[in-house]
Amino acid sequence: MLDDPGLYGPRSPLPLRVRPVAGESTGSFVNRLAHGNGLSLADFLDRVGQGEASADPGRVEKYPQSTEMYVNEAGLRYLSVLADRSSGLLQRDLPSLGADRLLAGGQEDAEWRWPWEPLAGHLVRYCPPCGDDLDVGETVWLMSPDSWQVCLRHGSWSDDSRGRGPDFVRLAELPETMTAHRVRQQLAARWGPAGEELFADAFQVAVYWWTRMPDTVCWVQRAWTAELGAREMRAAPLVIYPEAAQLALAMLDFECAGQRDTAARARWLVGMEQLMAQWGVDVTEGRQALLVWLGRHRMGMPTASAPSRPAGGRRLVLALGHDRIASRTGSVGQRSCLPWQLGMTAAEM
Prior knowledge:
Blueprint lengths: L25 H11 L4 H8 L8 H5 L1 H4 L3 E2 L1 H11 L3 H7 L18 E2 L8 E4 L2 H7 L6 E4 L3 E4 L4 E4 L8 E3 L4 H17 L1 H20 L4 H9 L9 H23 L4 H18 L3 H14 L23 H4 L8 H4 L14
Antiparallel strand pairs: 1-2, 3-4, 5-6, 6-7
Helix pairs in contact: 8-9, 8-11, 9-11, 9-13, 10-11, 11-12, 12-13
């Protein structure tokens, strides 16, 4: 049963139903719902409640690819009626309609907002062949924790860039990036949050390396293959993905071994220096980031409450220094215990 929109809300759904895509931005969904019913986005917004849009209709039509739409609780009820879909189902598929993202107040008066920047995450274009399979009809924008998405089914990489270079990178000539994404998925599937956080740590180490050494040969070659500039920040996640995945596996080995004394850390670091040399990463520069990571992972969790060795092959609780800093949700930068972020200069790291 759909929610009651209240005294002034819409009484019936729009004629044409539109199904949301899992992870889709609210703005992308309402844009498709409006256009599917022959309405401009501005006309549709008048039916969802009160808000402040640009006076330029052309600019309003660009909102879904620029920023995200947020509504209050009453606005969610209005949207539920118009879309002929319960609030719960909308919240399941559209992350920006979650309870923690609803605008405050306004139990009776429906409101919507399009802030200059999304409050969390990145707008990343959905894979067009996947959209064709779902018969979505037009461009879909996802609300992604990271600034990129990988589609293994169609071998494509998309990100949050607008109008600079290709909209999508075809990964047929970058199979190592496809493999790296599979490794990331396997870490999450097998080890849960610990696997996701180890990948985040590895990725942040690789970010440090790329920021200081963007001319590393394998990264330059991948950027050129993707038709991107080697020093473009947009290229960084794509080109460092393979090394980040291999580093995450090495970090997993360190955590599972459960040996954190000086000798064990030194042995692990020697092995990593050999890998860095194979990758073409300057060993002296590269080891600095690994030393920071080892410092955060030098103390295990108390054995009684959190064993460092997996139980049943699947449980793994990361080191105390990591656990105190890393977030359980969000982007790879937020899920890591390491302080630097993509976009910082080398001097800031």
